[in-house]
């Protein structure tokens, strides 16, 4: 058997409540595989790889690695929004130099579509230049937009179920607020993440599968005017006296002063005004069909880092895709993403498999149009049946010490730097 080669694992894009459990699954599995030597974490994603900032994960206390299970977001090894573009030849040259300098034979990237594209490009270029590097992707995104609309590449992405659970519970809590305060504040508008795809706002329906709440849900996929929404809300007020409205952040209701990230995606939390604020401004300006005012609730990034609402199902599956990725890497299964596929039948069950990275990188899932009701104000029972098993039944137990959450704190043990300092191409002025 040849001498083991080292591994780099890195993360990219927005975090999730369970992203660290995929990292944990990968690290705990890889450290016991004889084909894999030292495991490094790219500090803040591919940017850390370019800067030769490689956190030694093999040397960390196993307890701290275990605590990744209930440590949300990406504070452990960091993430980034740095895109490796085709013309950035110096960046690709630098990655190859890093791989050579640190005897890297495995490159695993945790993220969404753009991250899968990066994983595929990096590993392929390494191979083209004579390096024996296995590239593997690990899926992550709260938006659930990785893969295809037929659910053949992946059924759902780790991270989505926990954010869906967040919305299911928060709409229940908001309903209690709205019931009590409706004489003064009859309309509560809640804004959910999801730039172009409606899986997150759709999860609000899980708060009320029997459809007893005065709940209206608007997805970015179904264009509508403020005037139409106002009329529908006022109809709901006339029949129920109150309304809870969930809108996708990407619903086009006017100019919000969009701010773009390096991938060209809108960063709604950084934009000048929110969709929810645009809507309540219009509602309060026009006036409601009952007395009182509309209020807005925009939770922002809380929905992707709140471990208190995490799904136990999601945590388990996030670990398992990380585990699967480690085995794919050790077996030399280059150019694949570990995936979750749902078995047919009435009982929820999944299996963990692999799909080609190029197919994932070049695909974009859409929300099924037949899962949106004809009037565009709700989602159907088919969506509820798809999503309900994902959010699980039990609350996740998070360790607490002296009244504070006990989160992972990795030691700053970095690999020795062998190369000259480097500034990533896109960061140069």
TrEMBL record:
Pathway: Carbohydrate degradation; glycolysis; D-glyceraldehyde 3-phosphate and glycerone phosphate from D-glucose: step 3/4. The record marks 114 as: Important for catalytic activity and substrate specificity. Non-allosteric. It is an enzyme of class 2 (transferase). Pfam families: PFK. GO terms for biological process: fructose 6-phosphate metabolic process. This is Pyrophosphate--fructose 6-phosphate 1-phosphotransferase. It comes from Stratiformator vulcanicus.
